[in-house]
Structure formats: C-alpha cells, structure tokens
C-alpha cells in the first residue's frame, strides 16, 4: 500500500464517520414504522354495523367515515418496521400541517466522498 492509497483510505474512513454522525445527530433515521392495513375491514357494511348509521341516511358524514376508517386501521392494523437507506439523507417534518423536507447535505457529500476515495484507492495502486 503506497502513500496515496493510505490517504484515500483515511479520507474514506473519516467520511464514513462523518456520515454516521451527521445522520444520527441531525435526526435522520433509516428505520421507519408503518401500518399494514391490508387485512383490516373498513367496508361500509362494517361501518353501518358499528355506528348504526346507514350510508344512505342523511346523518351520514363522509369525514366521520374517513375518521372511523383511519381509527380502524390504527387499531387493527399490523405495525411494521422497514429499513430505507434513503432516509439517511432526507426526513420529513410536519409544521403547521405542511410537510417540510430536510436534506442531509453533509451526509450526501460524505457518501459521495467515500466512493471517490475508493475509486482513487484502486486507481493508484502500486504496479509490481
């Protein structure tokens, strides 16, 4: 291993550390939780049975039905966790009912720096 390769290796390890620190301290988490509600019954027949309000009645309110369906999904759905590496670089924050996207620019630079350094490591290897 020559001196240039050592420099590339040190920079890529440092970039990996910067990526991990920037993603963990700035609140970028690759793990996400979501509700799988495929098996939850939110049919209008079940709504009529639970609330005693027929869909054809004048008392029926669509917003009430949507709220009921959302509560059924949260109550009877299966909570699942998945890993998405793209969440290391972006996150969404709800401010005043508007989603605001935060971007981890430092992490993006560190991630691209790792690949540039690995490329340089293999390009500048000693020829024997």
Structural summary, described in words:
This protein is of the alpha+beta class and 128 residues long. The chain folds into 2 domains: 1-30 and 88-128; 34-83, no CATH class. 51% of the residues lie in helices and 19% in strands. The chain has 4 helices and 4 strands; from the N terminus they run αβααβββα. Strands 1-2 form a two-stranded antiparallel sheet. A two-stranded antiparallel ribbon has the order 3-4. A hairpin with a 2-residue loop joins strand 3 (90-95) and strand 4. The radius of gyration is 25 Å and the shape is rod-shaped.
In short:
By secondary structure, the chain is α+β, with helices and mostly antiparallel strands. It contains four helices and four strands. 51% of the residues lie in helices and 19% in strands.
Task: Label this structure with key terms.
128 residues, alpha+beta, 2 domains, two-stranded antiparallel ribbon, two-stranded antiparallel sheet, 4 helices, 4 strands, rod-shaped
Write down the domain tally. 2
Which structural class matches the secondary elements?
Answer: alpha+beta
- Output the radius of gyration: 25 Å
Secondary-structure element pattern, one letter each? HEHHEEEH
Average of the residue pLDDT scores: 90
What shape does the CA trace take?
Answer: rod-shaped
Stretches where pLDDT is under 50 for at least 5 consecutive residues are none
Helicity range: 40-55%
Largest sheet: 2 strands, antiparallel
Number of helices: 4
Distance between the termini: 11 Å
Portion in strands: 15-25%
Give me the side-by-side strand order of the main sheet.
1-2
Number of strands: 4
